[in-house]
Design a protein that fits this description.
By secondary structure, this protein is of the alpha+beta class. It has 8 helices and 4 strands.
């Protein structure tokens, strides 16, 4: 997904403030929830007849005490500038940008079936040793792998899946036949 300049400006501003008040993760969760609320009640939030203060109050009521003044101000700014259609993009981009700001690394792990907590911990420790950063693992299931995993991080791909090994063997056999 390509993120707009508008989204990145809002994300960078919220990250800067979040870092100062040590709430980067909290704001990420709030943005995710805001995105869910926005998508569910899009017609209400996009209605120009509804005043900004009413939209913000609705969000404050739905979030209860979990929302702080900084985040309320952020939401107000988004609605005042009529940028609410960017909320899903802002939420998605914030997630990835916050990983970088916190000096973590995104790790995509594709497996044939869901990994156990021990397997995830082993992958996490392996990645941490390789790049000396805390990994944030995103799991994806692809039954065509048969077994094993494909691990991607820092532009590297480690394929320890059965289908990957079978493909490698097939390439070697075909190269022998041609040679």
């Amino acid at each position: 997904m390509r993120y707009s300049t508008i989204s990145s400006k809002y994300v960078n501003a919220l990250l800067m403030v979040g870092k100062k008040v040590n709430k980067i993760e909290d704001y990420g969760e709030l943005l995710k929830a805001l995105c869910d609320v926005y998508v569910q009640f899009k017609d209400f939030f996009d209605n120009p007849a509804v005043k900004v203060w009413k939209k913000v109050e609705t969000i404050k009521e739905s979030f209860g005490t979990s929302i702080d003044k900084v985040f309320v101000n952020f939401v107000s700014l988004v609605f005042e500038n009529k940028r609410q259609k960017f909320i899903p993009q802002i939420a998605a981009y914030y997630r990835y940008a916050s990983i970088d700001v916190e000096n973590k690394i995104l790790v995509n792990v594709t497996t044939a079936e869901k990994l156990s907590s021990e397997e995830l911990r082993a992958i996490s420790e392996f990645v941490k040793k390789c790049v000396n950063r805390v990994p944030v693992i995103e799991e994806k299931i692809d039954e065509s792998l048969i077994a094993g995993a494909v691990i991607e991080f820092s532009g590297k791909m480690i394929d320890v899946s059965v289908s990957g090994r079978l493909n490698k063997i097939a390439r070697e056999v075909f190269s022998l036949r041609k040679g």
